[in-house]
Design a protein that fits this description.
- By secondary structure, the protein is α/β, with parallel strands linked by helices.
- The chain has one domain: 3-Layer(aba) Sandwich (Rossmann fold), CATH 3.40.50.
- The chain has 6 helices and 12 strands.
- The chain has a 10-stranded mixed β-sheet, sandwiched between helices. A two-stranded antiparallel sheet has the order 6-9.
- Helix 4 links the parallel strand 4 and strand 5.
- The longest helix is centred in the first third of the chain and has 15 residues.
- It is globular, with a radius of gyration of 17 Å.
- The chain starts with 10 loop residues before the first strand and ends in a 23-residue tail after the last helix.
Length: 283
């Protein structure tokens, strides 16, 4: 059997053939009647700057999330895959630790039309360290909240603002976690796109050393909003390989993907036994 093609070409994953290890690792409950089983997730991992070692762990997690929903994942690092016809095949596009200038103008135009026409975007960690020179991408992020700096990896206290959403319902109201915490150029809370940016989670700067460019008492770390007819969701979490094995983060990302894909959830969100959180620091 020939090996899989190198990263940079689309790799279609037969999700139902995911490994037993991944299935056991994530053990995510199936979502029925949420989005069509024919829907696809596109995972984009091109980097023109720093490249995170955790990209592989992130790909595996998205594959397992899709497995739980009976969905299909395709992965690419090719900007030429950003065409109107190809993007129309996907319910949501995940920018997984992308960095730098990853799209050329024709692809930018196709991607903007896709989002504003009803597509979904999920940005993970360094997705905010991407396309700094493209003004509309700042709108997609939310209020030009591009990455500007980060201190050393350390533990910090995170606080939920929206407690009962698909991407926060498996966390306690406050908890401690270790990751690489970004300072952003602007506070996304100040943005007005098609409506206000909804902050999901903030970080308590008194619980760690934020370094240069500290944002102060109001430091969002995860948020969501609408862009045209589409949806955009972002989390700063996701620098470390260990983050992708964390049960709370797995549900956090899963909820973000499903929300961005247009999933219709009931008001409120009930945690399942599979997302019980033990209040310990993630290491």
């Amino acid at each position: 059997m020939e090996s899989l093609p190198a990263v940079g070409r689309i790799r279609t994953i037969a999700i139902r053939a995911a490994t037993v290890v991944l299935a056991a690792l994530c053990a995510l409950p199936a979502q029925t009647g949420v989005i069509s089983a024919e829907d696809r997730i596109l995972v984009f991992t091109r980097t023109e700057g720093f490249r995170h070692d955790s990209i592989s762990a992130g790909r595996d997690l998205v594959a397992a999330i899709a497995d739980a929903g009976g969905l299909i994942v395709e992965e690419t690092e090719e900007p030429t895959d950003f065409t109107a016809g190809n993007l129309a095949r996907f319910a949501v596009v995940v920018f997984l630790n992308t960095t730098g200038d990853v799209l050329d103008p024709p692809e930018e135009a196709a991607f903007r039309a896709y989002i504003e026409g009803g597509g979904g975007w999920v940005g993970v960690h360094s997705a905010t360290d991407t396309e700094h020179d493209w003004p509309w991408y700042g709108t997609l992020i939310g209020g030009d909240a591009w990455f500007v700096s980060h201190p050393a990896i350390q533990d910090a206290s995170l606080d939920l603002e929206l407690l009962e959403t698909p991407s926060t319902g498996c966390y306690p109201a406050s908890f401690t976690m270790r990751d690489e915490w970004y300072n952003f150029l602007n506070n996304p809370r100040d943005a007005m796109v098609e409506g206000p940016v909804e902050v999901l989670m903030t970080i308590d700067e008194s619980s760690y050393n934020p370094g240069a460019n500290a944002m102060g008492a109001d430091h969002p770390i995860a948020w969501r909003h609408e862009v045209g007819q589409g949806r955009a969701w972002y989390t700063n979490l996701g620098h470390r390989n260990e983050t992708y094995a964390d049960p709370g983060f797995r549900e956090h990302l899963r909820g973000g993907i499903l929300w961005a894909a247009g999933a219709d959830f009931a008001d409120g969100f009930e945690s399942t036994d599979l997302c019980r959180w033990s209040d310990t620091t993630a290491n």
